[in-house]
Design goal:
Layout (H helix, E strand, L loop, with lengths): L1 E7 L16 H18 L3 E6 L29 E5 L10 H7 L2 E9 L1 H14 L3 E10 L3 E3 L2 E3 L1 H12 L5 E3 L8
Length: about 180
């Protein structure tokens, strides 16, 4: 069974100086870089997902801005795929399912931004396509959320989503536990 790497929304707006800075994005970036190097060395398929916001009045991920660009450390190579999406689900309205089918990929390693939104939505969608997911806990990042007048820390948000995805939707592990096949 072929395995691919899916890098979701690792874009400049989520880092220092961006319009939606996340909690500890550099820690996630470091683990994503390690994983990307491993997949490149093995010659396995790599799929970059880039969110471009096309909703009227959107605050970030706007076309032709520095914030929408994929982080420079992870720039897609010529032989890697780039999927453009406009919603949290990396499959909706994109060619991601086609790429996976054409390459006979039914096993993916997922990492990226944000744990509670695009990572969660994309990982859950994989179940509908019969795709096995390994989710790298420490190669994902998120931010604090507010609900009912209370702030929920990024750490609690992240851990809650990792726990809810683990088992039913993904095999959630740390980067150093990854075994690429």
């Amino acid at each position: 069974m072929k395995q691919a790497l899916l890098l979701v929304d690792i874009q400049n707006n989520y880092f220092e100086g961006g319009k939606s800075k996340l909690h500890n994005p550099l820690l996630a970036l470091s683990n994503i870089e390690k994983t990307l190097k491993l997949f490149r060395k093995k010659g396995f398929p790599i799929i970059h997902v880039q969110h471009i916001n096309n909703q009227e009045g959107a605050a970030f991920f706007l076309s032709n801005t520095d914030g929408v660009r994929i982080h420079q450390y992870l720039a897609p190579l010529e032989n890697e795929y780039l999927v453009i999406k406009h919603t949290p689900n990396s499959f909706f309205g994109t060619n991601l399912a086609d790429i996976l089918k054409e390459n006979e990929i039914q096993d993916i390693v997922v990492c990226g931004m944000m744990s509670y939104m695009c990572i969660d939505t994309t990982v859950r969608a994989c179940k509908h396509y019969g795709i096995r997911v390994t989710l790298l806990d420490d190669a994902c990042a998120t931010k604090d959320l507010s609900y009912n007048g209370k702030t929920i820390s990024a750490e609690v948000v992240h851990n809650t989503f990792m726990a809810s995805l683990n088992g039913m939707f993904a095999y959630v592990i740390k980067t150093n536990e990854l075994s690429v096949r």
